[in-house]
Amino acid sequence: MPQSPVNELPSREARIELQYLPSLEYFACILHYDHIWIDVEERYVKQTFRNRCQVLTANKVDTLTVPVSIDNHGLTKDVKIDYSQDWVRRHLGCLQAAYGKSPFYEYYAPEFLGIFQKKYNFLIDLNYELLTICLRLVGIKNRVTYNLSGTKNGENGVLNEISQINNKKAGYIFKYYAPEPYYQTFGNDFVSNLSIVDLIFNMGPEAKSVLLRSLKSR
Asked: Residue 16 in contact with residue 162, Cβ under 8 Å?
């Protein structure tokens, strides 16, 4: 078997779930590894950031939730979006109210609006398109591959981090993210680990620099 050069470090890989307009720690995790596998065949977990995100409004941190319907199998790839609720109007209205006066909203908002107007049937399609836009706007080029299911922790060198990012358990401590304050439209006190759109709309081209300064040491 060919051996790696002595000075070459092994590739660092991890498996994560697909989230909705993910948090800064999610992107810090992507930057932490050489290769990220995003599993769309994992079992869907309710009341997680798979279908929700947090943004900063004039009065508080607001949680935006995409209503979904889940079949008996409960796999993430099969979760459908429920359009019987007028959630698109609420989300777009909240983003406008939260970031309409931020420095870069007018430049980037049309791309997000275009995605919401497509009305995808499945949550993974919506999340995939939004994540693709966010990765491009931030300038993250780490290798991201979709659809790896069943890999156990350590198998083939892939660390299983499913449901470990933004875990809602009491006492949760960031694993990949060390908050680096940046300009936010509302409030005098910095609020950490919001949706990536908070960073994109407020910092624009400087978003990646903020994220890199926010990485915990490997």
From this structure: yes
End-to-end CA distance of the chain: 28
| pTM score | 0.90
90-135 residue pLDDT tens:
999 999 999 999 999 999 999 999 999 999 999 999 999 999 999 9
Q: 3-state SS string over the chain?
A: CCCCCCCCCCCCEEEEECCCCCEHHHHHHHHHCCEEEEECCCECCCCCCCCEEEEECCCCEEEEECCEECCCCCEHHHCEECCCCCHHHHHHHHHHHHHCCCCCHHHHHHHHHHHHHCCCCEHHHHHHHHHHHHHHHHCCCCEEEECCCCCCCCHHHEEECCCCCCCCCCCCCCCCECCCCCCCCCCCCCCCCCEHHHHHHHHHHHHHHHHHHCECCC
Mean pLDDT, all residues of the chain: 89
Q: Yes or no: say if 168 and 54 are a contact pair by the CB < 8 Å rule.
A: no
Q: For residue 187, give the nearest of 9, 75, 1, 61 by alpha carbon.
A: 61
